[in-house]
Automatic annotation (TrEMBL):
The gene is ext1b. Pfam families: Exostosin_GT47 (PF03016), Glyco_transf_64 (PF09258). Belongs to the glycosyltransferase 47 family. The lineage of its organism: Eukaryota, Metazoa, Chordata, Craniata, Vertebrata. It comes from Cottoperca gobio (Frogmouth). InterPro entries: Exostosin, Exostosin_GT47, GT64_dom, Nucleotide-diphossugar_trans. It comes from the Eukaryota. This is Exostosin-1b.
Length: 740
């Protein structure tokens, strides 16, 4: 009897073991091959085993786990951990996979690997590399670098693409400075291929950071990777087109409420959302058009709706729709990102995002709730009701923000790349990082450099937001290039007139003359401090250095031969206090397009408009000294120093590029131009016969670097109240201006 019981127990145990092996509940150590398979599918011993409702589907490949049934039983965090085959180092963060020591020693410098012979590089990737090499971050010395950029083209990792680079894994691993990708940044626009379009780049990126388009929130490593927009090969390298919003219409409604025009995928990933758009299309104010006429064999797969959709699709012009719609739908395509995103931003058509799981571009710094509507693919039928419910004030605000973001960060490859680098620099130099306000308000993070100051009130752009005003005094900086030989020289008369201004805090004389500094007794006695500084290397750009002795917000920039009265100085400063972000001054010049020579021209003629106010007699914010010195490239400043000319034009280019506004001209005596031209000093630039030709050349060189012409024409001149009015002169505050 006992033996019979033992046999039954053994038989039961054996049956249980067979059942466990069948269901996969026990792992056999002898399965060496399966260990390799699991690592390929993202298995890790420390990873939690997901719960499966059906034991027969236990071994799901990672790219088949993004299904409704799977998502019901696994959290986003678990899903992120499971999908490790996309790339290694998913747990990388700045504190674990980035070496800060080089950055702290040498600053934020970026090194680009030399291009290897025989390696093909796409135009888009060449634009990225050229932007970095032309930026202030670039270094040719890898020993000085904080960040490394591959010269191998990693933009298109679709194996079916002609731009696909083969054997990238071996090429990357053989790089002498690779170091498992540490402190490397990899740019990528397309990853994966038909049919799954995974985010696998086809090589192990190790501990490298990704600047990637169409990246999902599951694979995005916060504060380590950077999500960038998908842009086409036609995207301009520098400058970029302005946004299409020319004026604000009130109420801000257009012909269409919501539009979309694009491909419809009949099968495969990304097909569900676009296939459902016809349910919302009403052919009136909601026009959502799709076509299945794409690809070589579309007719083999076309469904019952294809012919009707194609006919409707051909009736509408895409650009006309884009420019005449309040909202633009941005559904996902094969990948999460879409070209429609940047197209909508530029057109001031508020993007309605319909791409669940997409980490929006530059999400680390941009508050997209102020410029877009974030929809849900599962709630497509509610989208029209949602956008109709948005108040017109909110629509206007959203539209204006699309234009700011487009022009600040997305209008060119250069801006996309520099924004990426600035984001990483902010992480590396946390003590000097930008605030959210600086990134999300004019002029944007690329032009508000946190190294200048950690206090927003020190910049000319945030006075209204902070509810404060600029400091009510100015520092005069007089640029001296001629020796002091007579007490009747214009510079001494100018110094006395400026010192009498009630708003003058101090006067700095920048001595850029080859002769020695005059003795202190040669300068006239004044009620304000006079500081004489010897110019650095005696070059023109030294007049715009950010001298620590400048303690006021306002700088009154003056040439040594400028002729201004105290009243004129007072009035100009009063005007500047209302426009602290602009250049305010007296001598105006203009630019024009010479269609015969196909180049920009420069004119000093007195006409009905102007686009520059020369810094020989102008007031501006001291921040522009810092920006001129630290933002502009050495090539432009070197050209100015070599010619000893054009520094005033370059400053006007810079300020207009920042503000997108013209300078402000104030009233002056008519003889100003003749007085300037009549100076007999040989050192005067006005006496140089090549002066005008050089300025023409400068205009075109500067416009080329900025990528477009930033100067803006204006026909506004600000005069004192009662100027030239038929009332008693005693009733006028700035009466002396009228007498001049």
């Amino acid at each position: 009897m006992q033996a019979k019981k033992r046999y039954l127990i053994l038989l039961s145990a054996g049956a249980c073991l067979v059942l466990l092996f069948y269901l996969g509940g026990v792992q056999l150590p002898a399965a060496t091959r399966s260990r390799h398979d699991r690592s390929r599918h993202g298995y890790r011993p420390d990873q939690p085993w997901p719960h499966f409702s059906d034991p027969l589907h236990l071994f799901l490949p990672w790219d088949q786990t993004d299904t409704e049934e799977y998502n019901l039983h696994i959290s986003p965090r678990q899903k992120r951990d499971v999908n490790t085959s996309v790339y290694r180092g998913k747990r990388c963060r700045m504190d674990s996979c980035f070496d800060f020591s080089q950055c702290q020693k040498n600053g934020f410098k970026v090194y680009v690997y030399p291009q290897q012979k025989g390696e093909k590089i796409s135009e888009s990737y060449q634009n990225i590399l050229s932007t970095i090499e032309g930026s202030r971050f670039y270094t040719s010395d890898p020993g000085q670098a904080c960040l490394f950029i591959l010269s191998l083209d990693t933009l298109d990792r679709d194996q079916l693409s002609p731009q696909y680079v083969h054997n990238l894994k071996t090429k990357v691993q053989n790089l002498p400075l690779w170091n498992d990708g540490r402190n490397h940044l990899i740019f990528n626009l397309y990853s994966g291929t038909w049919p799954d379009y995974t985010e696998d780049l086809g090589f192990d990126i190790g501990q490298a950071m990704l600047a990637k388009a169409s990246i999902s929130t599951e694979n995005f490593r916060p504060n380590f990777d950077v999500s960038i927009p998908l842009f086409s090969k036609e995207h301009l390298r520098t400058g970029g087109e302005r946004g299409f919003l020319k004026y604000n219409s009130i109420p801000p409604f257009r012909k269409y409420m919501l539009v979309f025009k694009g491909k419809r995928y009949l099968t495969g990933i990304g097909s569900d959302t676009r296939n459902a758009l016809h349910h919302v299309h009403n052919a009136e104010d909601v026009v959502l058009l799709t076509t299945c006429k794409h690809g070589k064999d579309w007719q083999k797969h076309k469904d019952a709706r294809c012919d009707k959709d194609n006919a409707e699709y051909d009736k509408y012009d895409y650009k006309e729709m884009l420019h005449n719609s309040t909202f633009c739908l941005v559904p996902r395509g094969r990948r999460l990102g879409s070209f429609r995103f940047l197209e909508a931003l530029q057109a001031a058509c508020v993007p309605v995002m319909l791409s669940n799981g997409w980490e929006l571009p530059f999400s680390e710094i941009i508050d997209w709730n102020t410029a877009a509507v974030i929809g849900d693919e599962r709630l497509l039928l509610q989208i029209p009701t949602t956008v109709r419910s948005i108040h017109q004030d909110k629509i206007l605000s959203l539209r204006q923000q699309t234009q700011f973001l487009w022009e600040a960060y997305f209008s060119s490859v250069e801006k996309i790349v520099l924004t990426t680098l600035e984001i990483i620099q902010d992480r590396v130099l946390e003590h000097g990082s930008r605030s959210s306000l600086m990134w999300n308000s004019h002029p944007g993070g690329l032009l508000a450099l946190p190294q200048y100051s950690g206090y927003l009130g020190d910049f000319p752009f945030y006075y209204a937001t902070l509810g404060i005003k600029p400091y009510p005094k100015f520092t005069a900086v007089i640029h001296a290039v001629s020796p002091l030989v007579s007490q009747s020289q214009p510079i001494l008369k100018l110094l006395v007139a400026v010192a009498k201004s009630q708003y003058c805090a101090q006067i700095i004389v920048l001595w850029n003359c080859d002769k020695p500094l005059p003795a202190k007794h040669r300068w006239p006695a004044t009620s304000v401090p006079v500081i004489v500084i010897e110019g650095e290397n005696k070059v023109m750009s030294s007049r715009f250095l950010p001298y620590e002795t400048i303690v006021t917000d306002a700088v009154l920039s003056l040439d040594e031969d400028t002729v201004l009265s105290t009243t004129e100085v007072d009035f100009a400063f009063t005007v500047w206090q209302s426009f602290p972000e602009r250049i305010v001054g007296y001598p105006a010049r203009s630019h024009f397009w010479d269609s015969n020579k196909e180049r920009w021209g420069y004119t000093s003629k007195w006409t009905n408009d102007y686009s520059m106010v020369l810094t020989g007699a102008a007031i501006y914010h001291r921040y522009y000294h810092y920006l001129y010195t630290n933002y502009l490239p050495t090539s432009l400043k070197g050209m100015v120093d070599q010619l000893a000319n054009c520094e005033d034009i370059l400053m006007n280019f810079l300020v207009s590029a920042v503000t997108k506004l013209p300078p402000i001209k104030v009233t002056q005596k008519k003889q100003y131009k003749e007085t300037m031209m009549g100076q007999s000093s040989r050192a005067s630039r006005w006496a140089d016969p090549d002066h005008f030709a050089q300025r023409q050349t400068c205009m075109n060189k500067f416009a080329s670097w900025f990528g477009a012409m930033p100067l803006v024409h204006s026909q506004m001149r600000l005069d004192p109240i009662l100027f030239k009015d038929q009332v008693s002169i005693l009733r006028k505050k700035y009466r002396d201006i009228e007498r001049l």
